[in-house]
Write a structure and sequence with these properties.
single chain, mainly alpha, 7 helices, 68% helix
Length: 133
């Protein structure tokens, strides 16, 4: 399969970066504006000067930066750290195993962002358009 898809890997990475960035930004919008399901069963938003508010800022603006391919390496590194912190603060106290503590999305996001931090923006990005990637 690598022989067939390998030639498209820069573009498939760009598609992954765009989709993951968009979904991460949606989580930030949930936290900051209470949209797309918001926080808790009644919706609502997080106070901006709280851990949840900081997470919302990182997710919304970081997701947009990643999606657009602007400063992806640095922003993805910060997002990876946020997801690691989210896992250990919110999920790990319930159980060690992500499958048991509902921490799979946080762990998966952490490692996807860590990979993105190592690769950078790639094709179809603002950084590439300005010769920085």
């Amino acid at each position: 399969m690598e022989r067939i898809l390998g030639q498209y890997s820069p573009y498939l990475y760009a598609v992954m970066r765009i989709v993951v960035g968009f979904l991460f930004a949606c989580h930030g919008a949930q936290k900051l504006f209470g949209v797309l399901g918001g926080l808790g069963p009644s919706g609502g938003s997080a106070p901006i000067f709280s851990l949840m508010g900081l997470a919302g800022v990182i997710e919304l603006f970081g997701g947009l930066c990643i999606m657009l391919g602007w400063l992806t390496g640095s922003v993805a590194f910060i997002a990876s750290g946020e997801m690691a912190a989210a896992y250990f603060m919110a999920h790990h106290p319930n159980s060690f195993w992500p499958i048991l503590n509902d921490g799979e999305p946080a762990v998966l996001s952490c490692f996807i962002f860590l990979y993105m931090a190592s690769v950078g923006s790639g094709v179809w990005s603002i950084d590439r358009a300005f010769g920085k990637s």
